[in-house]
Amino acid sequence: MVDSLFPSTEATVDDASPESRRKRRRISETAKETAESSEINQESLKRWRTNRVQQIYASKLVEALRRVRQRSNDGGKITSAAREIRDTADRVLAASARGTTRWSRAVLATRVRASLKKHKKAKLTGARKPRKDTAAERKRSKLPAVERKLKILGRLVPGCRKVTVPNLLDEATDYIAALEMQVRAMESLAELLAAAAPRSTLTRP
């Protein structure tokens, strides 16, 4: 009965506590980041779905693949043609993003790190590989399902291993939209090449 007469006293004390204020601040900041991320996601989806962006990417990809072929014809060393094509397609895709996203900057930086790693590998031939950290793997397996899936998503999206959840979702949305555009552009190029192949065989003497 007494509690019903004074219902707001304890709630007022809790609301005025520093911990409750910090919680409300974190909630408001997360809501703000989520709203901003949704706006950015809509813009990125529209950008990657335009025909102009797809055509620009396809033309740049063809130019890059021609340079790769020219380098191989000139005696340049290419370990794997499929891997070289995939890396070239990813670099052109990251360049199309113009460095506006974390994943695109990470893909472009990977090329520099890969070249440095080759030089180190040549010096350290015969060095033993370090053992995997099984303790870290066991720790990851004990994480809740949502956190475990977010960590997996962070590993799949380049450069997003240590970002906040709203930023991770924002980057993943943009990355997926860019990959979808990449698939469409490659399918269009494959159709053009398939249509041009019979003509080239017929014109041969």
What does this structure look like?
The protein is 80% helix and 0% strand. With 205 residues, the chain is mostly helical. The protein has a domain at 40-112 and 145-181. Helix 4 (51-73) runs antiparallel to helix 5 (81-96). The longest helix has 39 residues, at 165-203. The protein is elongated and about 75 Å long. Mean pLDDT is 76; it is low at 9-14 and 122-127.
Q: What's this entry about, in short?
A:
The protein has 205 residues and is mostly helical. It has nine helices and no strands.
Structural class determined from secondary elements = mainly alpha
Largest sheet: none
Question: How many runs of DSSP E, i.e. beta strands?
Answer: 0
Strand content: under 5%
Radius of gyration: 26 Å
The share of residues in helices is over 70%
Principal-axis shape? elongated
Q: Could you name the ranges where pLDDT drops below 50 across 5 or more consecutive residues?
A: 9-14, 122-127
Strand and helix order = HHHHHHHHH
Give the oligomer, counting copies of the same chain as homo and different chains as hetero.
single chain
Tally of DSSP helical segments: 9
Mean pLDDT: 76
**Spatial gap, N to C terminus:** 103 Å
